[in-house]
Amino acid sequence: MIKKTKIRILKLISGIIALFFGITGFSCMYGIFVAEYGTPHASYKVSGVVKDSTTKQGIRGIRLSLMKTYDYQSSDVTTDINGYYTVNTGGFPVSYLLIKAKDLDGAENGLFNNKDLTIDINEADYKNGDNKWNKGEVDKTINIELDPVK
Fold this sequence. Notes:
This protein has one helix and eight strands, in the order H-E-E-E-E-E-E-E-E. By secondary structure, the protein is α/β, with parallel strands linked by helices. The strands form two sheets. Strands 1, 4, 7 and 8 form a four-stranded mixed β-sheet that branches. Strands 3-2-5-6 form a four-stranded antiparallel β-sheet, with no helix packed on it. It has one helix at residues 2-24, and strands spanning 41-52, 62-68, 74-78, 84-91, 96-103, 115-120, 134-141, 144-146. The N and C termini lie far apart (79 Å). The chain folds into two domains: 1-30; 41-146, Immunoglobulin-like (Sandwich). The longest helix has 23 residues, at 2-24.
């Protein structure tokens, strides 16, 4: 009899917890944003050249990581032989992006200090959007100068 009462109490508590999570929406909030009926979206393209701050020559082998402000995932690219890069990402519209430059190849073409930059995104930067769910596209040219390690 006591065992049946314990089971009923546990079922009641489980039901109350399930009802709470169901009403508040915790069961569907695994990610940061839920695309249930449509979520605002934008595309971002950042390109440019990474140069040595002293010689002004392009640097190859620099990894650039582009991150959105609400997301810890990044879109990564590596500069080509002349230091050029293009990185694309998309997602929820943001007011700024973070870009991290990191020397990957070590002393192969010189050692350079890492650099973090913030790229401001203004309303005027968004192009070709419908002002509803598709905010549009942002195309920025960001040239980066890295200081050699001394």
